[in-house]
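hiii so um. not sure if this is the right channel but i have a protein structure encoded as tokens and i wanna go backwards to a sequence. like what aa goes where. can anyone help
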């Protein structure tokens, strides 16, 4: 861990190098009014809107919409299967079925999908405005770096991981348009609040709301509803993913949460959310840290309380890890959420060639690049370096190598 003490509050960083524009954003949040104790920067940190992705910010009685991010509740879900082998034909068959049942990119379901949470949507204008669209968006992947993946356990001596070779299913997605629209609406409200009150900000993209204000209370309620929706979105996709995979492979699923805890990791034949390892990584929460109740903003960071299971995905051609949190107070009990970008989307598509991208995913089945390489492994940091740099934050317990990938359109 590297500590910088030149700003209003200290900065604690779990990475070897950081690009100048990202470091500028880190310094900005360290000088933000209301920032508490220190700033924690994860090993996958890279530039974002206002606050870097891979940052953890604690505040007292304020909420910063851009410190949560525009994809509120974006996160991961993974499940362990009972099988250890699956051939290429069946992998392709599963991907083909997934493409037909899980819309990607800007595509939505043609019919409204069921979720009991729609009946308790808060009476907040932006939520009500998007409610009908959300009924067709739930159970959709989205674009960008959202993905569905089939992986196999692998051993790794340096992390003392045996690797039984079981197949896992994994996906990454968020709150779709709900989160984006809510983030934008309340960032504009935050900017107006800070301007009207002549609050001196290091960057207007770090505008905040008082939690006890009507606007702050609305954002808090909207954000938490977006978290619920994002979780339900992943659950619905995973349910359908598991059904397809089970129908093709004949597998059952293992409750890894119980298995890891030393209890009976029994297999189950039907879908149940309890078998998932699941976490989100764009949110804010009330927590106790350093003797005070604060608002912890995790933007591209995951909670890593002691013993808590998490997921740190690599890029499409590199391993992912199931990790166990160590509850390190210096990171506000947080860890990285993935490999983290080293090339922006446009830059990656501009500088990488098809040959380079194809070579990086050699041996992995996926649907094709569609003329751009923004999700090629070269656009991301080395996942092994990320895991190494946060070894005091989360312990790697399962290493997973990709077999087949469906990326967002």
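sure thing!! here u go:
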């Amino acid at each position: 861990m590297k500590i910088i003490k030149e700003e209003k509050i200290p900065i604690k960083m779990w990475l070897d190098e950081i690009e100048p524009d990202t470091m500028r954003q880190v310094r900005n949040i360290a000088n933000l009014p209301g920032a508490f104790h220190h700033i924690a920067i994860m090993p996958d940190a890279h530039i974002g809107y206002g606050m870097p992705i891979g940052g953890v910010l604690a505040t007292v009685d304020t909420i910063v919409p851009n410190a949560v991010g525009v994809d509120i509740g974006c996160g991961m879900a993974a499940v362990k299967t009972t099988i250890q082998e699956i051939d290429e034909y069946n992998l392709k068959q599963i991907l083909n079925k997934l493409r037909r049942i899980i819309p990607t990119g800007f595509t939505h379901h043609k019919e409204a999908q069921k979720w009991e949470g729609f009946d308790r949507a808060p009476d907040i204008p932006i939520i009500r405005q998007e409610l009908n669209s959300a009924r067709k968006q739930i159970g959709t992947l989205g674009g960008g770096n959202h993905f569905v993946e089939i992986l196999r356990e692998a051993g790794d001596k340096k992390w003392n991981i045996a690797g039984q070779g079981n197949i896992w299913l994994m996906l990454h997605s968020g709150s779709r348009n709900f989160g984006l629209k809510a983030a934008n609406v309340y960032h504009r409200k935050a900017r107006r609040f800070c301007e009207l009150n002549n609050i001196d900000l290091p960057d207007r993209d770090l505008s905040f709301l008082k939690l006890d204000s009507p606007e702050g209370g609305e954002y808090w309620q909207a954000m938490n509803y977006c978290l619920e929706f994002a979780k339900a979105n992943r659950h619905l996709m995973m349910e359908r993913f598991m059904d397809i995979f089970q129908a093709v492979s004949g597998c059952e699923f293992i409750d890894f949460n119980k298995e890891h805890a030393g209890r009976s990791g029994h297999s189950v034949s039907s879908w149940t959310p309890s078998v998932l390892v699941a976490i989100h990584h764009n949110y804010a929460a009330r927590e106790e840290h350093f003797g005070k109740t604060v608002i912890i903003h995790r933007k591209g960071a995951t909670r890593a309380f002691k013993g808590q299971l998490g997921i740190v995905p690599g890029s499409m051609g590199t391993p992912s890890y199931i990790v166990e949190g160590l509850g390190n107070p210096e990171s506000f009990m947080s860890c990285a959420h993935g490999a983290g970008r080293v090339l922006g989307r446009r830059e990656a598509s501009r500088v990488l060639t098809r040959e380079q991208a194809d070579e990086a995913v050699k041996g992995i089945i996926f649907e094709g690049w569609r003329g751009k390489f923004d999700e090629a492994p070269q656009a991301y940091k080395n996942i092994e370096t990320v895991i190494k740099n946060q070894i005091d934050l989360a312990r790697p317990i399962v290493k997973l190598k990709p077999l087949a990938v469906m990326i967002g359109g």
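oh and The longest strand covers residues 394-407.
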